[in-house]
Amino acid sequence: MNGLHVSGLSVTLGGNRILSDVSFDVEPGHVVGLIGANGAGKSTALKAVLGIVAPEAGDIRVGEQDVVDLSPRERAKKLSYVPQGAPVHWPLTAERLVGLGRTPHLTPWQDVTDADQAMIRCVMQETDCWHLRDRLVTTLSGGERSRVLLARTMAVGAPFMLADEPTSSLDPLHQLQVMDIMRGQAACGAGVLVVLHDLSFALRYCDRLVLLHQGGVLASGSPAEVLTDANLETAFQVKVARWTEGGEQFLAPHAANGG
Ligand SMILES: Nc1ncnc2c1ncn2[C@@H]1O[C@H](COP(=O)(O)OP(=O)(O)OP(=O)(O)O)[C@@H](O)[C@H]1O
């Protein structure tokens, strides 16, 4: 019962049912991939877990605790979040922005401690953005900003990390590094819930997958159980080529209609 448990989650937004009876678990030490076509409800599911959108029904628990019983500070300590393509409007340095990740652990007006500072440096090095520490985030490229925002999320040190398409806008090497970081977070005991569009990453980096389709769970289980030809054709209207290279499995989609 130490995991993040979502059961029977339903969300209606703007009068439209977006999620219906969605259930999944994220256990400590696991990377769980949330996949599905555009508009399937992936970001909405993350936002419901985080309390950014209010569910119409459902039970969301961290361990034994219902998230609605957690104060915003307690929730922020337990669930860290990498938002999708988040713009940053404040002219803060990258180091200062990453330092905001420590806010849930500080009392009001308390400055970061030496231990916090060491952690900030560590996560910025891990995400390859320590060299950007004195730059204003408003001047960074999209990929540089993404890595700084990931570092801020890691700086929280929460037992669960929710990441919404953390590899979008990154070059191929940084995409691989970010997926390795997701695995590294899990190796250190965190439960990671990550929204992905890259099916090869879903196959290679995730312990379990949840495939959303039209607001419901079409399939969940191991990558091999979920990434079947039939599920991929239903969810994405694609066929896939599959191959193994250097001991790693790859998937490349192509249009189901042959186009
Ligand atoms: N505030 C809102 N009001 C009405 N509809 C909304 C609202 N927010 C999201 N939606 C709709 O809910 C559906 C699911 O959106 P969501 O962002 O969760 O999808 P997603 O699976 O993350 O998609 P993508 O892969 O494109 O990021 C979409 O059809 C979207 O237009």
Automatic annotation (TrEMBL):
GO molecular function, one term: ATP binding
PROSITE patterns per record: ABC_TRANSPORTER_1 (PS00211), ABC_TRANSPORTER_2 (PS50893)
Residue ranges constituting the ABC transporter domain according to the UniProt record: 4-239
Alphabetically ordered keywords of this record: ATP-binding, Nucleotide-binding, Translocase, Transport
UniProt-listed Pfam families: ABC_tran
CDD domains with a match to the protein in the record: ABC_Iron-Siderophores_B12_Hemin
Function: Part of the ABC transporter complex HmuTUV involved in hemin import. Responsible for energy coupling to the transport system.
Protein name, UniProt field: ABC transporter ATP-binding protein
UniProt organism field: Kordiimonas lipolytica
Lineage, broadest ranks: Bacteria, Pseudomonadati, Pseudomonadota, Alphaproteobacteria, Kordiimonadales
